[in-house]
Design goal:
Elements (H helix, E strand, L loop, with lengths): L11 E5 L11 H10 L3 E6 L4 H10 L4 E5 L5 H14 L5 E4 L14 H29 L3 E6 L12 H21 L4 E8 L5 H14 L6 H8 L9 H12 L10 E4 L7
Helix pairs in contact: 1-8, 3-4, 4-5
The structure holds nicotinamide-adenine-dinucleotide (NAD).
Length: 269
């Protein structure tokens, strides 16, 4: 059983974009919990205060967890963040770039600042974290793992979200390019594509797409989309964490530049 494994003892793992446990679910939390359960020293970060509650929840369960507020779109904050991680936990071994935003809006109303915000967090912010983490891994000479959260929208653009689709296709391009550059160094770079995972983001998606696509009551649009997933259920943080932990493990040492779906069969490519 995966929870009984201790694949990451003494490893330092960073997870960006992590909310505390709450009613809707979680991706970043599921990932961080899995690494903590397997013995890692975990640092979680987001650009909101609640990230400290998330780390506190892990510490209450006896895990080694640090939290730092940080905006992934600001290079100076990203550099300072990895400095703090190194000082308090040790140099990063695994960096999971998971922070992300979505804005659902019809084409004529999509503003330049909305386009810029989504690209800044999902693509530039992800790149800045990869760049800083990889630079440190190269300096330490011990290899490492970069794992990037993409989306089903890195496979196929959905309606009313061209900026989000562009940002997630960008995640794939960066992942492949960095994977090629870093391949000889023992640093692997992979991405994963969640389908529908119950989180705050999907509560927003349900409401915003529901309004624009028809007369949906809360929860109806999500239920309709989930009914079309071959496994007939939405995913959860644990579903995602299993894949991410595998990609970070020694068993995945020969896998790089890949983008793997974790979506109950929603996309098969
Ligand atoms: N929920 C899904 O079904 C789904 C599907 C596909 C992809 N994803 C991706 O999974 C990732 C996590 O999404 P989620 O559903 O947990 O969303 P969420 O909104 O619940 O969490 C997103 C997190 O990103 C953080 N964040 C946003 N902007 C930031 C910034 N500038 N700097 C630092 N942190 C920032 C937020 O603080 C939050 O903790 C995102 O990259 C999202 O695009 C989610």
């Amino acid at each position: 059983m995966a929870q009984a494994l201790k694949r990451f003892e003494n490893k330092v793992v960073v997870v960006t974009g992590r909310k505390p446990r709450h009613r809707t679910g979680y991706i970043g939390l599921g990932i961080a919990e899995r690494f903590a359960q397997e013995g890692a020293k975990v640092c979680v970060t987001a650009n909101e205060k609640s990230v400290h509650d998330a780390a506190a929840q892990l510490r209450e369960r006896g895990f080694n967890a640090l939290s730092v507020e940080m905006d992934v779109t600001d290079k100076a904050q990203v550099v300072a963040f990895y400095d703090e991680v190194a000082a308090k936990l040790g140099e990063v071994d695994v960096s999971v770039q998971n922070a992300g935003v979505i804005i659902i809006v019809k084409l004529p109303e999509l503003t330049e600042s909305e386009w810029d915000k989504v690209m800044a967090v999902n693509t530039k912010g992800m790149f800045l974290c990869c760049q800083e983490a990889a630079t440190r891994m190269l300096r330490a000479g011990k290899g490492g793992r970069l794992i990037n959260t993409a989306s089903g929208q890195a496979r196929q653009g959905f309606v009313y979200t061209p900026h989000y689709a562009a940002s997630k296709f960008g995640v794939l391009g960066i992942t492949q390019s960095l994977a090629k550059e870093l391949a000889p160094t023992g640093i692997t770079v992979n991405a994963f594509c969640p389908g529908i995972i119950t989180t705050d983001m999907w509560s927003y998606n349900d409401e915003a797409w529901g309004k624009l696509l028809g007369d949906y009551q809360p929860g109806e649009l999500m239920a309709e989309w989930v009914a079309n997933i071959p496994m007939k259920r939405a995913g959860n943080g644990g579903d995602v964490a299993g894949l991410v932990a595998f990609l970070a493990s020694d068993d995945a040492a020969y896998i790089t530049g890949q983008m793997i779906n974790v979506d109950g069969g929603m996309f098969m490519s």
